[in-house]
Specification:
2 domains, mainly alpha, about 190 residues
Length: about 190
């Protein structure tokens, strides 16, 4: 799947959530967010014949917390979802590293080939970044309006994540394992 389509499938539900929230409120936006998430996961499955780990985990949490938001008519649940998900990701990475298992490597090794030091450093950085996102989410949803929180999810968390990702490029380049080149005959004339 090309990167543009992949980005659209991952960011699309959040953009739809933002638009519907502005027009119809948080509860309708949450229901639509859930439906669009299921649709994008279904489309991904049809295209790839498998579901990518991160979108699947995120989708499960969207359905759980979105369902609680709608059934209990309490938007606290959808606001808590990013905090809980980010803390769980951070804890999983830190615990995995203690158990000598790098879960970030497991998820990303098809896209990146790094040495072990690179994978460990990248995992630690992402774990701390997830904790930062959780803290920011807690601050924003507890001190701002619901509309401001939705704006923060789209125009705060997404750009922060992109900037953080791009900031990891020097680390990735430094620890990248070069692809082995095919053997060629030595042409010494």
């Amino acid at each position: 799947m090309n990167q543009g389509l992949k980005l659209a499938l991952e960011a699309g539900p959040l953009v739809v959530f933002f638009i519907v929230n502005a027009k119809m409120g948080i509860f309708v936006a949450t229901a639509v967010f859930m439906a669009v998430t299921v649709a994008t996961l279904g489309y991904s499955y049809l295209r790839l014949k498998k579901l990518p780990t991160m979108p699947l985990v995120g989708g499960a949490f969207i359905l759980l917390f979105g369902g609680l938001t709608i059934v209990l008519e309490d938007d606290t649940f959808i606001k808590l979802k990013p905090t809980i998900v980010n803390v769980l990701f951070a804890v999983a990475i830190f615990v995995g590293l203690e158990m000598k298992k790098n879960f970030l490597k497991t998820v990303l090794e098809s896209a990146l080939t790094l040495d072990e030091a690179g994978w460990r450093t990248l995992a630690i950085r992402w774990a701390w970044f997830f904790l930062l996102l959780a803290a920011l989410n807690e601050f924003v949803w507890r001190t701002q309006t619901t509309d401001m929180w939705v704006n923060f999810k789209v125009f705060g968390i997404m750009p922060l994540t992109l900037v953080f990702s791009f900031a990891q490029v020097p680390l990735i380049l430094r620890h990248q394992i070069p692809e082995s080149e095919p053997e060629t005959e030595d042409e010494n004339f």
